Amino acid sequence: MSARGQAAADRGARTYGRAETAILAATEQLLQERPLSELSVGDIIDAARISRTSFYIYFSCKTSVIAECLRRVMDQVMVAVDPFLSQSAEDADTAIRVSLEQWVAVCTVHGALLRAVSEEWPHDEQLRKLWYAMLATVSAGTARVIRAARHNGQAPPGADADALAACLMWGYERVLHVALVGEARGLPRPEVIIEPLAQMMVGGLYGRPPAGSGRRAGQVPVTRPACPPN
Question: Is 58 exposed, middle or buried (0-12, 13-18, 19+ CB in 10 A)?
């Protein structure tokens, strides 16, 4: 694991008090039952079975609870994508798939929270800053991978690395959100989108399909005959 991934793991491993843990768990559970706009501090206190005094020892408001939940998930996301950002796997395609599988797993477990934040961050400055920070961190790491691949001759020249990385990451953010909501026609369940996302990433970075995708390794691609002139 890279230093970045280890730092995220260390932050995620910090000890939470019983009341704080109960508050965070209760909030995520409640978000599976109702939208964030309908959730109150009183609801969280009742679900966590704590006193109002205990709640305000840890949090100032509902948004501060959501922000702490999101920070924990952000740390898990950074650990999840570490194989790709650090290129720790044997090859780039494997690193991409492993990171995507782990990222989708985190998003599936915390789907209710991420749906709520994705819908609310445009209207809340604190959540917006956290959401932007997470995507910016992953985008910056992706841009570094793109530059290294181009420098090593593994990827062809192309669009600005920072812009390409940002487009890929924000595209993934929207795809994962819609997949978690489960209402987009033609978009499969989160666990089924890994291969399409891998194809997007490998194609965007390296200008080729993922290894083993659509054809066996070493198989010659089929060339369609040109249509005869009219």
Answer: middle
Give the whole-angstrom CA distance, residue 126 versus residue 60.
13
In degrees and rounded to multiples of 5, residue 215 shows phi and psi of -155, 155
Residues 86-132 pLDDT 10s = 876 568 899 999 999 999 899 889 989 998 998 888 889 989 999 99
Domain 3-13+63-206 listed as CATH 2.40.30.20: no
H helices of the chain, in order, are 3-12, 18-31, 41-48, 52-58, 62-80, 82-86, 92-109, 111-120, 125-151, 161-181, 194-206
Decide: helix, strand or coil at residue 69.
helix
What digits encode the pLDDT tens for the residues 10-26?
454 555 688 999 999 99
Stated pTM of the model: 0.76
